[in-house]
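Review box. Two proteins, two foldings.
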Amino acid sequence: MKFIDQAIIQVISGNGGHGCISFRREKYIPKGGPDGGDGGDGGNVWIKSDKNLNTLIDLRFKKIFKAFNGENGSGKNCSGKKGKDITINVPIGTKIINYQTQEIIADLTEKEQKILIAKGGWHGLGNTRFKSAINRTPRKRTMGIPGEKRYLQLELCLIADVGTLGMPNSGKSSLVKNISNAKTKTADYPFTTLQPILGSVVRNNKKFIIADIPGIIYRASSGSGLGIQFLKHLERCKILLHIVDLFPINYSNPIENIETVLQELKKHSKNLYEKPRWLIFNKIDLIKSLDQKKIIKEIKKKFELKEKYYFISATKKIGINQLCLDIISYLKK
């Protein structure tokens, strides 16, 4: 199924049913009193999070969601039937935004979370309601109130404990694939990951969710490449793993690659840039121990290396178990 993380929809709640003007007319009771019933309330529109969904693709094809109108009242004091509610199911992690004002209405971060997004119109009153000692034959009723109309912007931000970022082909997908149950594609060419993928990692009966997004390239914040449009899926992560290729296939400089990713991250979002971030140096099996020390020395010279760092081989599964255990310990704190 294609991954869609944005949709714009219109929701319309049901109109309230009108009140009725009616008088009791039966044999031997030629001049009975008023018996006009009330209308029914209009149906509501709800939005509910569904753990079985992971994309907003269904909302790309259906744009308008309308609840049912309340029925009008009738004689013999019969009230109109309430309009039927409708519920729109969305993935967990969906933000509901007022399209006109860009105000965040709700953020559905838990399963089975339900919010009333458009309330049905109030019912009208029948003429029975207006009977009094002064006016025994009221010819007055009220009309039902129209339902609400709202334009909504829905944005899906995946919920993960850990997120990966880095240049294309740095080994993010290989790492996620080898430590989790994620079925992510891996190959020796850039942009094998075309959409965010979630994986579940279990170690010592403890679990965390990891997100794999497409690689980030130079000028990504200006629209180049794929990764920048998916960076929002890292906003909920508690920690970021910055994967650095020590032996890039294009012979680029790992130090410059780190700088490129950090610059693009900072341009995109200050909050994301300031998240806890660990440097993960990949493809340790392809370089010598002496070269590892040289790289760390250069990095410390170039950056203020406050982050934790690890040397791993995602494909050979070197160092990844300890990395997972340390992540679990960090998340526990």
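Next protein.
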Amino acid sequence: MKLKFISKIDYLLLLCIVFLTSIGIAFIYSSGFNSDGVNVSREYIKQIIWLGIGLVLLIAVSAFDYRQLNKYSLHFYVAMIAMLLYTRFFGRLVNGARSWIGIGDFGIQPSELTKIAFILFLSKYLAGSQNEDPTKRFLKSLVILGIPMGVILLQPDLGTATVFLPTFLFMCFMANIPVRYLLIVFFTGMTTVVLTVLPVWETEILRKSVPAIHILTNFKLRMLVFVALFGITVIGVIGFILFRKKYYYWITYAFGILTTSILGSVAAGKVMKPYQIARLIVFIDPYSDPKGAGWNIIQSKTAIGAGGLLGRGFLQGSQSHRRFLPQQSTDFIFSIFSEEMGFIGGVAMYAAFLCILLRILYVIKQTTNNYSCYIASGILGMFFYHFIVNVGMVMGIMPITGIPLPFMSYGGSALITNMIAIGLIMSINSRRLDFSSAI
């Protein structure tokens, strides 16, 4: 039995994970040195401990039949929502967000583990609702998304909350939810972000008044616009019900997005901190606030550029050792890696991540049931988003949202979540030809 399990381990995937976590620990260690060559941090020791726990969980989850999780997914989902609510009111305040619970130096971030609970429960629902009306199926899926995402936004933890959106879109796309419905989520999210940051962009970057943007800064005008858009949406709904004309449907579609986005921007303005909104706009012009919100991007790009082709060498990075990079062991670990290992090192890291994503795609293609397909799709969306946003963030082509780089950034909760996710992929892969079902 033991030999059978060992033979089913995806060694290529495991090799990529070991490679990324190893270089992650190495550069967390490097980030702890100051300009005098003294190591002032012990984060790398904690990360080694978390890695050991993560590897045990990876092996345990991969050995476990993932199909057995189907019956417990609702309980896991509800438990994590309860933990999120507890954290919102009684959690530890870190970097402006009440998203941690723990005792002393030991702490966990429930929002990270909630990603797994969300993927498992949404997969259960999507797999069991194949014959439902597509609209009802989409709306129920949206509720499953909205509950954890809303609570996480209240902490407020914008970065972690945004991860749920691409995860949701990947899973629903594979579940044959109509694309027009998924575009509602995408365009509503994008429009809400734009409407939220425009007032800050006007004052901080443009530095002159724009009459059209004044609507977004005046609460009464914004509510008036909301009422007008809502009225048009209602007319569209009534017209489509009575006359069944397509143009009424598209009126409802377009104005419904605008109505929801206006309301969402009001809520975001109340919940999000000013520094979080500023992070969303400085990537347009980091030099608009070079010593404030733009500092991180400027220093990160400087570090990456300083690495050149071959890098400065391990433990030779000046940007990190002089403490020019904030959150350098977490959000900006790629900047340290690039400065010390250069372009060649970056290519090797990209190749490892590409291999992981391709292996997950292979599992999706080879799996024999919908439940496992949706789980793998959600994990693919989660990893893809984390990688694209983090690398884009440190290169200045994405806004800073506090998204860690999987397997490399310092953080026990994120590492444990990622290890469990890989364990699920391995469990699915090792049972892809097993047609017996526990679902």
